[in-house]
Amino acid sequence: MDIRGIDHIELYVDDAHQAAAYFGNAVGLRPCSQGGPETGLTGQRSLLLRHADIRLLLTSGLTAEHPAAEYVRRHGDGIAVVALAVDDAAEAYAELLARGAVGELPPTTITSADAEVVIAEVAGFADVRHRLVERRRGGGDFLPGLAELPPVGAAENLLVEIDHLAVCVPPGQLAETVRGYREVFGFDEIFHEYVEVDGQAVNSTVVQSRSGRATLVLLEPDTRRRAGQIDAFLAEHSGAGVQHIGLRTDDIIAAIRALRQRGVRFAHTPAAYYDDLESRVGQINGSVDQLREFEVLVDRDHDGQLLQIFTESMHVRRTFFLELIERRGARTFGSGNIKALYEAKERELAVASPGGFAVTQEVTG
Fold this sequence. Notes:
- The chain is of the alpha+beta class.
- It folds into two domains: 3-148, 2,3-Dihydroxybiphenyl 1,2-Dioxygenase, domain 1, CATH 3.10.180; 161-361, Roll (2,3-Dihydroxybiphenyl 1,2-Dioxygenase, domain 1).
- It contains nine helices and 17 strands.
- The model is unreliable at 354-365 (pLDDT under 50).
């Protein structure tokens, strides 16, 4: 079985058109196709958006019984399907079932006048499924039940691809989830660490397809420490799920500037974070003042540096957000920034209030 990468991500949302306004007008994904009852999608409405190699499918249930409506009732808007590109969907489906996967949809061939795809689905984790997508001919954006939309004006592709998905799992489930991706899906375990700061702690394991094009960062809170953002996600989301999508860019400053102008709000970085930046991560190719202005985070591993920033959550439950990431050789995911952000906030608070007050009330992640 050859998993070539992520074909698309499907979000179940309360209002597909409203969600498309954010991901389209603000983030810059362009509408490619849409569908509903008039195109054969019973009880739902879907829109497919694209930017470079990023495909995002937004689906709303039109009836209370539709799986999308049930998902939103339980979790709020969120990722329900991670679709994987494969060379042979039927073969991959059979192999996954033989390894212990639970089948959700057997291989199905769908054709249009100029395209043919085969899809199948298996269970992933919690309420998230994996859709196997084999594109046999034509229609690079073709999906069943969607009708092509007229092309909109071309926009600069500031984003490149889906770099990774960050997945939160309940305490005690990390090892089992990792084992499933290794033994069933054939992913490699490429990175593991235990991060502890200010009384909070999280176990993190990264699994990746052999192609290197599908990556999951799996996060589990340590309940022996005080509750933090992973615990909050699990509570508000009602269980395991995808916390954020990492979107790779080749120019993070240009991407932030464009998204800011369209109304995207980013998480704040304390000014003190930049005071010792180069002593922590080495010489940076670019201006530290510019990184400070755009509030970009920087980390380093053995292979190089990475630049990253997180958006504020756009959902009422605060359970889903985006990350922009520019890789300058680095292969890890910026965990060094957790401690650096905490220490920067501590310095800021010490200056603002020499008498001191509990930093633990200010830092939640």
